[in-house]
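Need tokens for this chain, all 344 residues.
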Amino acid sequence: MKKILIGLTRQECEQFAEDIGEKKYRGRQIYKWIYEKRAASFEQMSDLPQTLREKLREHALLGFMTVAEIDDRSSSGSVKYLFRLPDGRHIESVYIPEANRTTLCISSQVGCALNCRFCATARLGLKRNLTAGEIVEQALAIMRLRDEDITNIVFMGMGEPFANYDNVIKAAAIFTDDNGMAIGARRTVISTSGLADKIKRYADEGHKYRLAISLNSPFQEQRAELMPIAKKWDLDALLQAVRYYAIKSRKAPTFEYVLLAGVNDSHRHALALKKIVKSMPCKLNLIPYNPTVELFSRPDKEHVDQFARWLLPLNTGLSVRWSKGDDVNAACGQLAGKQSEWVR
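Here are the structure tokens for all 344 residues:
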């Protein structure tokens, strides 16, 4: 069976080179061609001897995903990419252009098991985890197609990143390696719905990527209804883990709060949320709901602004994030692969 090279670390590329009878430094060259120069074929690796390139064709594959669809109709400039995996499953990624940066929102699983009631990905259920290579190749494929560098990566696409912890952390290390893709660790965000044990592990391992936590209600009973993971890791356990992370890492995590009209956007919710936010070093992003399922709707801009005012004053960063790409179902919570694969 041929070795798939995308997803290998620099050390793994060195080991692969030795496994096929080459010097270790050849592995470093291969690594650079894959991640820094974004080679789409072994023939493009022009400083490798022809004999080595032939050996690579015999023993290895560079990639394994295909771009099935590209939706560039969004008025925001966001572009949604549908990838077909070797097993026939599909995932989606989103390119998000802004004035001073370009961001990729990438997926970590095919579907998701957490069943958050407001999220389209929940309709899929969990099909499987993505490999580190499948995570990384989303970015590489889009960067090749667009012929441009990406400044930011957010693990906020399909799936719960911390439910695929090892592959996500490995992919993040590849993204941020100065000898490879060289995306800054502070420009890489991993989001979780609240797996408290993984948050503590993340803190203990000392990762430099930014951490975002989906909160969505300051009340345990309601949060458990909206996000069933809160039945396993309740609000107290989650907040304890986030405080542990903030103290141990000396970094301010970001709470993400999706505003659902008439559900979690009352004055009472704002006061309780304010109490949580003021209890630890953190930032807060308010995200007006991106229409996905019929159960919920987005509050109007006037009410979103009022909710933000109810939170003031805060000794922390507060922002309202109006998602881009919602007009083509490419915004936060809207990614769901192929409709034919949804769980009925």
